[in-house]
Amino acid sequence: MESKRKITIQLPDNSTIEVSADLSAGLIAKELSPGLFQNALVAKVNDHLIDLSTVISEDARLEILTYNSPESHDILLHSTSHVMAQAVKQLYPQAKVTIGPAIENRFYYDFDIEPPLTDNDLAAIEARMNEIIAADLPLVRREISRDEAIDLFSKMGETYKVEIIREIAPDIPLSIYSEGDFTDLCRGPHIPSTGKIKAFKLLNVAGAYWRGDSRNKMLTRIYGTSFASQKELKKYLNFIEEAKRRDHRKLGKSLELFEINDQVGPGLVLWYPRGALLLHNIKDYWIKEHIRHGYELVETPHIGKAQLWETSGHLGFYRESMFDGMTVEGETYYIKPMNCPFHIQIYKSKTRSYRDLPIRYAELGTVYRYELSGVLHGLMRVRGFTQDDAHIICSPEQLNEEIEKLVLFSFEFIRSFGFEEMDVYVATRPKEKYVGSPENWAEATEALKAALNKLEVEYHMDEGGGAFYGPKIDIKIRDALNRSWQCTTIQFDFNESERFKMEYIASDGSKQRPYMIHRAIMGSLERFVGVLIEHTVGDFPLWIAPLQAVVIPVTNNQDQIASEFHKLLIENGIRAEINLNNDTIGAKIRQAELMKIPIMMIIGEREATAKQVSIRRRKIGDIGIMNWQKAIDMIAHEVQLKKENKS
Ligand SMILES: [Zn+2]
Ligand SMILES: [Zn+2]
């Protein structure tokens, strides 16, 4: 009898058990331990996630994932999104479902529903979800043919699902999941039943275009979250509150740093004077540091001829991220999505010898990339941004040393802004689309790893995560909320030097192809500033703060002497304002606090007579009365120390 057949299951601790070949993963878990079965959400068989109800009929490696596993958390989140969709369909039968994925610690589901839902509707949906969870409905998987799926969802009036099914390649098997009266197209896997949902919360409603494209219909998106326990849920809700407090879009407005408005267009940033000053302080530091590290600054145009982008391959490989061309005197020009082709032109402006290498061209180059309006997010994801870009052109012998220098420079630069935690990744050759030979890739990847090993930097491998033109090192920074942000990238390139026929004369007189590295330390200045705002909650380090100090006369009687002191601050290069409003001293202090100005310099009658100033530091309080010169020296000294990374 087939059912009496035995198979061997290997467990995560490498022990093995023999079980009947007709058992599901869940029943095997039950045999192993009733406690494990109680907490099981999903199974991993030979590295594939499957439903607990799936029968294992061949020898296999098996891991039962409980609430504690990060992988099962995604399944829990996604399963909760199904339950939410079910509740919405029960309450609003006219709603059409679209997609409902898990994202980091959250899920969402987009509905086409008129009138759109609001936050006020969430309580009713949650209540219905609680009923569905209490009913402990099993989530049942069924494989289905394409025709049957189209028929099923057409009958249900789920036109978005039909659209999705039609776009799935015919050879990909389809499956549906049902719980009670609700059925969704889904690859799965899912938790075994709705009762496994222990602690969830619907967070907010937002508008989202179908497929993130503003030409499509605006849908209602409901965000929610789901955890193994109320305790974990509460912890996450606190995290969300803290993230809201730090939201750079909100702080950007209240601190008068920037705006993005509809008259100009989505993803295009208008920097107000304070924001621009912050940006310039960072740029000044960047320029100084690059010159100190052996870079040459270049400046290049914002547009270039189509032929240039043909040669570089951007029109072939990157066209979807480029804005449409414009025609000038019969020639098509494109706005630059990258600076590389321009830097290469400068390299090619004369014959280069091995003695000239390495050449390091750096530019704060503003580029424009087309992104769907639906994915744009404050400064974090924009359509126009400034890359702190550089290209290093070197001989093969120089590669290792250049990469080492780059890694060290990047760390030093990022740390000077107060970011201490970083995660380093080495991304290797993609499986399918790539240029260059596998040997070249191996050599370049080894060079990246060797530099990190030599510097004793811990890193993770991102297998297959490289660009099509070469392997790379990515450095992600962690902010005060332990969120990870893409920052530095150091990318090896086999493509451009070949396409542009870059050359140098080697020591033996032969013509050789140089190696090329693209790199950006901050990545996008816009995103970097966005992260910096959220990391510091707008309390910028003194050396880059757009305003370092405000001079506050206690009454109008001190206006004149305070103005004299303010002038002295400006002459000494300190970024200071003076508050000459007719407000009370209390009101003036509150204003400075709201704007998060690091230092208040208060001048009352006593200070005026003695040509002194009373200093109040933000978050520290009063630090005493001192004479003018001492106050100036104090700030100058602190700024100098920070710039030299000494504190
Ligand atoms: Zn699903
Ligand atoms: Zn480049």
What does this structure look like?
This protein has 647 residues and is of the alpha+beta class. The protein folds into 4 domains: 65 residues, Beta-grasp domain (Ubiquitin-like (UB roll), Roll), CATH 3.10.20; 175 residues, Threonyl-tRNA Synthetase, Chain A, domain 2; 236 residues, BirA Bifunctional Protein, domain 2 (2-Layer Sandwich), CATH 3.30.930; 95 residues, Rossmann fold (3-Layer(aba) Sandwich), CATH 3.40.50. 35% of the residues lie in helices and 27% in strands. The protein contains 20 helices and 33 strands. It has an 8-stranded mixed sheet. A 5-stranded mixed sheet has the order 2-1-5-3-4, sandwiched between helices. 35% of the residues are buried. One zinc ion binds next to α3. One zinc ion (ZN) binds next to loops.
Summarize the structure.
With 647 residues, the protein is an alpha+beta fold. It contains 20 helices and 33 strands. Strands 16-20-21-28-25-24-22-23 form an 8-stranded mixed sheet. It has a 5-stranded mixed sheet with strand order 2-1-5-3-4, with helices on both faces. Strands 6, 7, 8, 12 and 13 form a 5-stranded antiparallel sheet that branches.
Descriptors for this entry?
eight-stranded mixed β-sheet, alpha+beta, five-stranded mixed β-sheet, 647 residues, binds zinc ion, 33 strands, Threonyl-tRNA Synthetase, Chain A, domain 2, 27% strand, Ubiquitin-like (UB roll), BirA Bifunctional Protein, domain 2, 4 domains
Give the topology, please:
Blueprint: E1 6-10, E2 16-20, H1 25-32, H2 34-39, E3 40-45, E4 48-50, E5 60-66, H3 70-91, E6 96-97, E7 102-103, E8 106-112, H4 122-134, E9 140-144, H5 146-155, H6 159-167, E10 174-179, E11 182-185, E12 199-209, E13 218-227, H7 230-245, H8 248-254, E14 258-259, E15 270-271, H9 273-292, E16 296-297, E17 303-305, H10 306-312, H11 314-317, E18 326-328, E19 331-335, H12 340-347, E20 359-368, E21 384-394, H13 399-415, E22 422-427, H14 438-454, E23 460-462, E24 472-478, E25 484-493, H15 496-499, E26 504-505, E27 511-512, E28 515-524, H16 525-536, E29 549-553, H17 559-571, E30 576-578, H18 585-594, E31 599-603, H19 605-610, E32 612-617, E33 621-627, H20 628-643
The structure holds zinc ion (2 copies).
The site of one zinc ion (ZN) has 5 residues, from loops.
